[in-house]
Amino acid sequence: MKPIQLVIADDHPVVREGLQKMLGNQPDFEIVGEASTGAEAVKLVSQLQPDVVLMDLRMPDLDGAAATAKIRALEVKTSVLILTTYESSVDILHAIEAGATGYLLKDAKKEELFSAIRTVARGQAILAPSVTTWLLHKVRTPAQITLTAREEEILALVARGASNKQIARTMRLSEATVKSHLLHLFEKLNVSDRTAAVTAALEHGLLRLET
Description:
By secondary structure, the chain is an alpha/beta fold. Helices cover 53% and strands 14% of the residues. It is built from ten helices and six strands; from the N terminus they run βαβαβαβαβαβααααα. The protein has a six-stranded parallel sheet, with helices on both faces.
């Protein structure tokens, strides 16, 4: 039987080396390439068309979700298994929307990883238990987003085009504090940038643009 061909994409050499040693001991796995950036992962998939890519989320050039979307656009049979330390709602949604077949956390047991690789190689989806629980909760529970007064004020300034520096000066906060509030806003609204935050807030009735 032909082994499952794998590409490991992670910007940490130690992680890649550890995965290579662990997976190399399985007779039905064959590691055909390694990538340290999202762009390298896309290039390797285009060239090698492996069965599975183990994709980290946070990498230079392209993050894991963006690289996954580009791989899907190649129209190859390669499945993408996200292997990451991140389990925030934003990360999960972006990865799934980009076309990832699986989402597993790096603290998973090696037997879970082996099983997940074999599952996605067959084209079947696999999610970490905590991710499955979160998705089920999201589907079953109506979205109720509540913003603090400070978050509302920051969002209103963002909608007017204010930069972090301008917001900090207006509200007498440090830029680091403004950035922290924005990250919390992104998390609540399931978005990853300022424009999307304003759009989502308008859709949820959390913001009204001045006329």
